[in-house]
Amino acid sequence: MAKRTDSDVTNADAGDPSRKRGLFKRKNKADKANKKPGRMKQMRDVFKMTRRHDPNVVWLMLLAFLGIVAVGLVIGLLINNWITALIVALPLGLLAAMFILSRRAEKAAFAQLEGQPGAAGAALSTLRRGWITEEQPAAVDPRSKDAVFRAIGRPGVVLVSEGPPHRVKRLIDGERKRLSRILPNVSIHVIQTGDGEGQVPLSKVSRRIQKMKKELTKQEVQQVSKRISSLGNKLPIPKGIDPFKARPDRKAARGR
After folding, report:
1. Whole-angstrom Cα distance, residue 140 to residue 233?
2. What number of helices (H) and strands (E) belong to the chain?
3. Which residue of 9, 10, 147, 234 has the smallest Cβ count within 10 Å?
4. Exposed/middle/buried for residue 209 (C-beta within 10 Å: 0-12, 13-18, 19+)
5. How confident is the model at residue 135 (pLDDT cuts 50, 70, 90)?
6. At what angle do helices 202-210 and 82-113 cross, to 10 degrees?
7. Is the pTM of this model over 0.90?
8. DSSP class of residue 143?
9. Do 141 and 114 touch, CB atoms closer than 8 A?
10. Per 3-state DSSP, what percentage of the chain is helix, strand, and coil (rounded to 5)?
């Protein structure tokens, strides 16, 4: 008796309606598994993550929503048109609640990164357009894992350190000296992350940088970036530096 070949089995399966339905169901399950989560699911995940680190967020959101709706109703009663005022107040209240969730989610996201290698780089990744950042640190101590990350923008070059001030000072001074040789007329700013005196919390690093005075044009920013790139990174990157590539979910931090 002749044996059935693989092609015969495949053809037989393809002609079987029940097998076709099974293959179709499996394909649908695989597509659903590979499909990106929807916006509502992202919102639920953001809310759960934020509530886990900040239980008061629920009450703050509720207070903002009800407060705006109450104000809208009062205004509506005063102008004798409470229905229109309510229609306007409901989306405004929801917007206020989402704004509070966004700000609290951002703090919760940075709280998770606190103390982890690469947290300062993660803070730089939230900068808006116009800034040039790198995943890898500009300078790093292979033993202590202290690091200095770099951002280039219209205010000049910003060095963001990660580690105790007394220990990371050597890295900062070395990187500043290296940049000053090739960028004598470009301002070099230093921000030390942390909760101590003179340090900036991770959640406020981006806002601190955005407030810096602009000194360069967009074309000059590109020229500075190219000049720094020509130096290369001669410092050794220690093993296990992968956490430096970690980045917070910006959509999650914004509540979107």
Report:
1. 10
2. 10, 5
3. 234
4. buried
5. confident
6. 110
7. no
8. T
9. no
10. 60, 10, 30
